[in-house]
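Recall the central idea of this unit: under ordinary conditions, the amino acid sequence of a chain determines the structure it adopts. In this exercise we apply that idea directly, starting from the sequence alone.
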Amino acid sequence: MEINNLLNKTILITSREPYNQEGNSHMHYLEILLKTNKVIFIEPAKHWPPKKFKYQTNKKNLTIYNYYNLIPYKPFPKLAGKINDLITCLLLKLRLKKEIPLILWQFDPYYLEKIPFLKIWKKVYFPLDGYSRDERDAIFAKRADLLTTVNSTFIDHYYHKYNKNILLLPHGFSDFQLTRDNEEVSRIVKEFKDFVILTGSLSEGVDYKLLENIALSVAPKKLVIIGKTLVPRSTTKCLFEKPNVVYLGLKSYKVLKNYIAAAKCCIVAYDKGTGTWRNPIKITDYIAQYKPIVNTIPLKDLANLESKIIYTTQNTEQFIKWINLSLENSLPVDNEFIKDYLGQNNYRNLVSLIDKNIS
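Accordingly, the structure predicted from this sequence is:
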């Protein structure tokens, strides 16, 4: 698919996630855009007050500027945000020296609601999460030349009211995700033998009672958990006390895939009460390694993968039955279907689809 709008342009990207946040979607898209464009990335504010509008160019075609939060957000956050937007745009205008038509690409509604002084040619709004509680989300959605999302629920509930040019995309796959370190995978298998893996943050939305039941049912085989803990210790105490539960904390994106490749089964264990709006990106890491996924919540945007690699149930008995089948290598994965799916949805192809749909 030929790229026209996203060829030899200057793209201004904003995100609440910083540059070099390993494995995050904005980084995968940025890397593809850098191949054919110049990219200016606005780094989220880290400190107050800012020392200077500093920048770095540690990669060809990439310039990174820090968002200039000169005005403290308390006690008037909305006003402060607008003023800081104006200051950041003015400083950027002075750095650019000559007027350049920019493509403004924003992954969330937190930076540059106001964009004076800059010549914006096209606007792409690509919210990677649900931001409907923030009034700026509607502003960004309405003004976008293209609104892109990975979640059809967001479109059904509110985005369809704000914009007619909407593109629904699946989560993408990077070339890096599709590889593994076979020597490291062998080491992990030797250490943990046959095991079940859960990755991602341990948040309030996780079904901890289900995880305890899984640990009891698969014992002495191990349940390996990798990710940040965002809940009180009392929430995970019973789970972590199980002798076959191994909590490894946060692991680098570069090594996480090797643990997934070594596992017999990957699980998504959200509490059934969290609703059906989720489309967790961690599933892409599971799919990339062709691992059977046992899941608790309906994922309508991944319905075509059901019984191909994803198995969804809210029944605990069935959930554990599928895990045990995976541990016996008896839960089918349609490798040919998944191979085609991975090829169709690499980030290069997704950027091409965005390019084609920018009006």
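The CA atoms of residues 240 and 247 lie 7 Å apart.
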